[in-house]
Amino acid sequence: MLEIDGLRAGYGTADVLRGLDLRVHAAECVCLLGANGAGKTTTMRALAGLLPARGGTIRLDGRDVTRLGPDERLAAGLALVPEGRRVFAGLSVVENLAIGAYLRADRVAISRDRERVLALFPRLAERLSQDASTLSGGEQQMLAIARALMSAPRVLLLDEPSMGVAPIVVRDIFRTIAGLAKDGLTILLAEQNARMALKVASSGAVLSEGAIAVRGESTHLRADPSVREAYLGA
Amino acid sequence: MPAFDATALIQVLIGGIGNGAVYGLVGLGFSLIYRSTGAVNFAQGEWVMLAGMAAAAGFTARWPLPVAAAAALVLVAAVGVLSYQIGVRRLRDPAPLLVTMVSIGIAIFTKGVVMVTLGKNPNGYPGVFGDALVRMGAVSVPAQTLIVIAACLAFVAALHLLFARSRIGLALRASAADADAAALVGIPVRRMVMFSFALAAAAGAVAGLVVTPLTLISYDQGTMLGFKGFSAAMLGGIASPLGAVAGGIVLGALEAVSSYQISSRFKDAVAFILFLLVLFARPHGLFGRRTGERV
Ligand SMILES: Nc1ncnc2c1ncn2[C@@H]1O[C@H](COP(=O)(O)OP(=O)(O)OP(=O)(O)O)[C@@H](O)[C@H]1O
Ligand SMILES: [Mg+2]
Q1: pTM of the complete model
Q2: What pairs with residue B204 in β-bridges?
Q3: Among all ligands shown, which has an atom nearest to the Cα of A83?
Q4: Contacts of residue A102 in chain B, CB cutoff 8 Å?
């Protein structure tokens, strides 16, 4: 479904990604692991179209989206929940959800999806008119995911949903992500929290030195000595 | 100092609020562009002047006044869009300081073009009700002053509705809050910045159109109007459009009362003093409280 070949991207004169290859099949949940600064966020930004690809191709269902802007990629079905949540301050929860569906015109389907995401995150339903910036970290993360879901994506990119969120809430959020995956949503999940990520993802890839160093089934990665040492603290 | 005279003071205050409404509209323009780019748009005052001058030129050429005013409004909004194209769109990295610098160039250029094409003489046209006075008991004020206040309130109300209720208003607020996140929900962020320039120019144009019958306008009045508008925005918080309008009204009222009680020569100094007070009372200026992310 999502095919990334030889992706190069970076900042200034330096390339952070130097030929990244990755496949995410339909209805699959893949996690992208990597140390601090490995380039997970860079990958996600390049996939969403916020950072131009310097080389390589990104294909969605066979369609080349490498040169498309963020809005066109979203229209094609690729939605990113950015690192650090980035909910819209000054907009209420319900406005954040409404703006998530900015590119859609089907009112009936939009309001049905709003009910659906609010059922997924009941804590948001209790805070509809609250300014998004006054939500707790976990609630903001829920809102960021809900906002992305409001675009009715076919592939959901999640960049470090555990960041700055209390451990109990992280578990809640990961349970929801697992539920989305089970319902057949295609997911690419970038995480430093490898333990949690490998639990929800069916397979994983480790990003190191600008390319995928190790990849495999989650069970396989959990057993891999190098992965255990570097990312599972064992 | 004149003896205390409540009627005169109320008249002075209403006149001041009228001026303040103009400063507020100009400040609103500063605020809209600041929120979307992080820059201070030095051309804002020139847009006020351009609207008045263009409408006066149309009126002199015997166009019906509503037509001249509408044409001036459209012209100034177009100049706003053009300024975005030159001042932001073309820049590889539209950093706030760079956009601010380019706006100074645009301001000087606008002033020069108006001087050369429309001349150096003050120009104007009659107000909607001419020089009529409205009497409320012992107080009487020019009808046009009330038109100025009404125009300001109407513009603010329309803008408020736009921001609160419309899809594009929501997109404008989202873009100002976080440009990257806005791009991620599919908002064409650059077009939103362009739209902010058009709105800011329209705010300036409305101010220029309604104030010209009261004061006449000439090519060199834009700078002072811009400074007053900027002070208004600083006073109310430049990141807040409604704050800028409130700041303008406070500034106008204080100016009027101080020139009545002290000296009319003191009038223009009031904005400067308030401006400095804001800077001193908040060492980082009200900029430090910015809520908007630049694009
Ligand atoms: N805007 C930027 N300008 C310059 N360099 C950047 C920028 N953003 C990231 N980098 C650099 O790119 C490299 C990859 O960063 P990236 O944010 O993609 O890593 P990451 O894997 O997401 O890390 P983390 O787990 O800490 O989020 C780092 O060396 C970082 O310093
Ligand atoms: Mg990251």
Answers
A1: 0.89
A2: none
A3: 2
A4: 167, 171, 185-187
